[in-house]
Amino acid sequence: MQSITTLLHPVRWQLMLAILASALSAAAGIGLIAWINRTLESGMADTGAALGLFGGLVALVFASGVCAQVLLVRLGQGLVYRLRLQLVARVLGTPLERLESLGAPLVYNALTRDITVVAAAFKQLPIAVYNGLLLIAGMAYLAWLDLTLFLVTQVVIALAIWGDVLLGGRVKRLMRRVRQLDDTLFQQFEAAVEGRNELGLSRPRRRHLYLQRLQPAAEEAMRAATRAEALWAVNLNWTTALIFLLLGAVFFAGTALGLVSREVLVGYVLATMFLRTPIATILDAVPAVIRGRVALGAIDRLELGRAEDYSGPDSSGPLPPFRELALEGAGYHYPGVGGEPGFHLGPLDLRIRRGELIFLVGGNGSGKSTLGKLLTGLYLPGEGSVALNGVSLDEFSAPDHRGYFATIFPDFYLFADVLDERGRDSDVDARVEHYLERLALDGKVRVQAGRLSTTALSQGQRKRLALLLLYMEDRPVLLLDEWAADQDPVFREVFYRELLPELKAAGKTVIAITHDDRYFHLADRVYKLDSGKLVSWVAGELQTKVSHDRVSEAR
Ligand SMILES: Nc1ncnc2c1ncn2[C@@H]1O[C@H](COP(=O)(O)OP(=O)(O)OP(=O)(O)O)[C@@H](O)[C@H]1O
């Protein structure tokens, strides 16, 4: 994540203007106090002029204060807005591997809680700038009143800062712990929502989630947060006590010892009382700023990708027609967890040409989906090469490579918006209606202005809608990962015997990951995976299967 200074760089001139207005307001406020003090001492010679000066200063305090605050609030909110969009853009630009290893709860935590915390810290910025300037102006006035007393004040300030630093470090450590526990809590929140069916049926599981997983983390977070806030409250009161000690010392030096004149004494007391508010306000803002820095650090540790710029037109022009996808010694490795070696796919050699219907088969966990992600460029090869039309897949060629594919993985997300990537003046709604009918979803789902009326359907129907979106994307290579697994036998037949041949006839290359051995013979080629290796092109097995099916059909 960018540091705060980098974030502030584009708005530095507005910030300067806001600081200038704050300085003016602070100077006018201190000027008012100085004027009251002077008038108390030397009386009012010309009441009209005095009232004019007083009214003018009040008007200046008001106008410059409002101006500074409005400018700073706009600045703060603008920063939050940019930060928010930038973070989402960075999530969108993060490689799939990274997002998978982070897991959804950590990303949600950053997108929701961390952003809010950083926003809250930024909202302190105007307050801190305004009160900081007020404090500087007040200090200047105190120095002007009496240099010796001012030096004593500096000693008191040094003591206060010592307290801040000492406690601030501990508060930060505690807040870091609260932030870590937040990730644990978000994981449990995900379990509470996503596991609703299992939890709904099982009180022991609900109890376990609540008592063993949620409560301990929530309790520790509460303890750490309370400790942090309490420590800071001690600090706030320590500062207040120091201010009163300072006032007492000045008062004693002025009245009992006669070391300070009455004018200086009154001025000092007035100015110090006046400065109590900005001091307290700044100190109040510190925990929010610490939390903001902890949140920025947590966002940093996610190691998200770079944000893509979406403001301009989509520059990627039409891609050359798909000819061939070739794997040579290609492999991919998942890092191991807890000393276990991770799963290794490859090395694999295979070639897929335009218009082919390819089936990828193999047992559970044999690496079919991983191969699907490698073929489509969602994963980059860790060894060997994956080349599309002769262009090797790497982080630079990946966007174009991915542009050839449309996929439905088992954990697909169903978008309600239909994107017609043809970009022609085709009538999106009419095309959607056509496919809805083809997929036997007419009467169930409607489309209006490119948006589906509902996505709340059965799993099999949702998969058909995902297929509709894939048709609309009109990409040359389609990867369907166990698409038919949720379909009824009738529609499964339609899929293998009608939809796949239609796609092939339309010049599409289709890679289907499947366990439906009844239909293996319909593919141009079948590749079988076992423990991450291509074990055979299952021609022999196919022949046996086809003859077996024919015998069954004949009976
Ligand atoms: N995100 C991941 N992080 C780490 N390891 C993973 C991840 N996804 C899969 N694996 C590992 O890779 C192996 C292959 O998984 P993959 O999903 O490719 O299998 P598959 O052949 O598609 O299985 P299935 O038929 O059950 O869908 C798994 O055994 C698992 O150990």
TrEMBL record:
Single GO term (MF): ABC-type transporter activity
Residue spans crossing the bilayer: 15-36, 48-73, 127-144, 150-169, 230-253
Domain of life: Bacteria
Keyword field: ATP-binding, Membrane, Nucleotide-binding, Transmembrane, Transmembrane helix, Transport
Start and end residues of each ABC transporter domain: 325-554
A biological-process GO annotation: peptide transport
ABC transmembrane type-1 domain residues: 17-291
Keyword set includes Disulfide bond: no
Protein location: Cell membrane
Gene Ontology cellular-component annotations: ATP-binding cassette (ABC) transporter complex
PROSITE patterns: ABC_TM1F, ABC_TRANSPORTER_1, ABC_TRANSPORTER_2
Protein name in the entry: Putative ATP-binding cassette transporter
Lineage: Bacteria, Pseudomonadati, Pseudomonadota, Gammaproteobacteria, Cellvibrionales
